Amino acid sequence: MKSISVFCGSSEGNDTDIITTAYQLGFYMAKKNIALVYGAAKIGVMGKVAQGAIDANGKTIGVIPHFLKTKEIVHTELTELVVTDNMHDRKILMYEKSDGFIIIPGGFGTMDEFFEITTWGQLGLHTKPIGILNINGYYDALITQCKMMVERGFLKQENLDAVVVDNTIEGLFNKMNNYVPLPAPKWLNKEGL
Description:
Blueprint: E1 3-7, H1 16-31, E2 35-38, H2 44-55, E3 60-65, E4 80-84, H3 87-96, E5 100-103, H4 108-122, E6 130-133, H5 140-151, H6 157-161, E7 163-166, H7 169-177
Parallel strand pairs: 1-2, 1-5, 2-3, 3-4, 5-6, 6-7
């Protein structure tokens, strides 16, 4: 993987391990020559991931909608900054610039990004790996809910298994590097329609 989108919060939350691990993730990616694609903010968990990558001389690509440029305080030391018209265009551009996706702690925006990119994978619109870095059990309840979806017949086990989960950076990257994409859904034709 040459580039990975990291979906995470524009707030720091109240768990210092999350902040530390976010920084370590950006640093790790830079040392592995993996470009960081993220939401462009200098603040919150987003800012920590970016700062880790910047401190390790990594490539950082920030993507932000115009209306959030001042609210989320754009990082001024990025390799590349792309401004979009809206949130949907932001997600599409982050998808296009990435070979995979990592979800770390965040709020509704992070959940929106996770579920949309995961749904696209389930529908066969992409075959890129999606990983959850489950720092201090932050996503335990989400994983439990997804298992409930399988148990109740709303989600196939193979689609849940397509999302890799680990509580360490290196462990997650090992799983993502060994990711085997889902077969194309049977209802899609050759054009993906």
